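Sequence in, structure out.
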Amino acid sequence: MRKIYDAIIIGSGAAAYSAADWLYKEGITDIAIITENRLSGTSRNTGSDKQTYYKMSMDGNSLDSPYKMAQDIFSAGCCDGEKMYLQSVNSIKCFLRLCDYGVGFPQDKFGGFPGYKTDHDNTVRATSIGPLTSKVMTEKLENAVLYKNRTPLLDNRQVVEILKEGNRAIGVAALNTETNEFECFYSQNTICATGAPACIYENSVYPESQHGMTGVLLEAGVHLCNFAQWQYGMASVDFRWNVSGSFMQVIPRFVSVDENGNEHDFLNCYFETAEEMCGNIFLKGYQWPFSFERAKMSSNIDIAVHNEVEKGRKVYLDYTANPKGFCFDNLDNEARQYLEKNNATGDTPVERLKKLNSKAIDVYLNQKIDISKEKLRIAVCAQHNNGGVYTDNNCETDVKGLYVIGEAAGTFGLARPGGTALNDTQVSGLLCARHITEKSAFSYDFEAAECCYEKYKDFITDNDVDYSYLKTKMSRCAAFLRNREECVALLDEINDKISNYPLRHKSLSDYFYDKDMLISAKALLETIIGEMPLTGSRGGAVYFEKGEIAAENPEYRKYLTITENGKVLFEKAKPVPKNDEPFEKYLNKI
């Protein structure tokens, strides 16, 4: 007898567990979670100085509303106002559920939730429990889903295909990485919560355990939304971690080391005065993502770091010494007052960090890296895909019955406030669960959709197959600095690799991993080449054509970029809805 679940959730991070828990609360209990490795993924293995969760203000003092929050996110451009309203109006419900599950967000003595300022935002909606916010979220949700709700989890399954009947998803095919055999799982609804395609860049702050499955979804027939809009920022590379917030606000020294071991205080060359340089290092704390609009201000630091790497040098943050020309009394008022208010006025950056946020130091100590004694190697890295798979307001894709939530979905636009991604993991799980609850069951001809993997019986193990050099090229020409001519040449090369993809690899698992990487990189290059000659440089990327920087055409901020089968289209973004209906209209529906 073939088992048919009401829903299958792919992934084991904050978004996957959120969807599973909301489904259970809505009475949909015949569900299962499928994952490659329960302990892998971004939610469980990433963070920053104090990893941010963004929600509507609850500090008891700030004036806020769902409409205002949605409008603030929407105002940066290239995102859907209705989706931003859904993110906002459901934020408190989702946030309080996490609190009930034991995620200990700070509260004042009256029960309010104080906040702080984060990237791309001027409010105090941000909150945090420290560097490991998403890890703790995932663990608390996992406890509710696996142990309280007793949802089955099928581990060591690498999903390699979305099973379909016509244009409807009816389940997944997965490679059992323990037995090296294929298995099929059937469901009325399939929810993909597998994160961004972290596989396509060499310079990446995504944990090495994070891969994504955007390529598998593209093969299933989904479209993409804003796929070229990524967020890049400085991160340590020996241990992948964002060096945002406190790591910058204590104003460390930037230094590069050439092949002969010579040190270079390179950052002074990019600013007119030491005071200007130190002020922009401080601002980098909550202006951490690279921004084209700040390319001559705080984001000039990202360009400087990248240029040093291009010279063949290694770039470091030095917390044992101040930048050349640093003088505490000459800092601008914002930086000086912030550090004084937090009693972080020590003589060196690490002394200031101990006062400002000692947990940030502990993150590296836990990896046997002592930043009070050794330099921290960094690079400008891919950190978040603001775009992804195109979905409707219920998180359903163009393929019926297939939902994509969390970072895998194309939810945000040019510049999302830091922490909105964690809010999204919770809200998108709720939205798809509600929609599934309202649907009627369908009948399928499962026999017609049975998969045949006979072609893999001739698979050859060949340890010489290696596509990692393509990730290096992606970081060079298709990350925060994008060169049209190089992107076109790289797309031709990747298309050739896909056309001649051999039935031989290090392993069957890696065969599918690399195939997914090639398809995802191809889609990104197609989107860049199709979009940016029209839009110009914008958001987290500078676009070069014939060696010249293309200025932004702001008219395109009114549109979403949709990629369908390699072609780029523009869809007018819907505004944030304003609900002026009288209360009694809703009361009478009860």
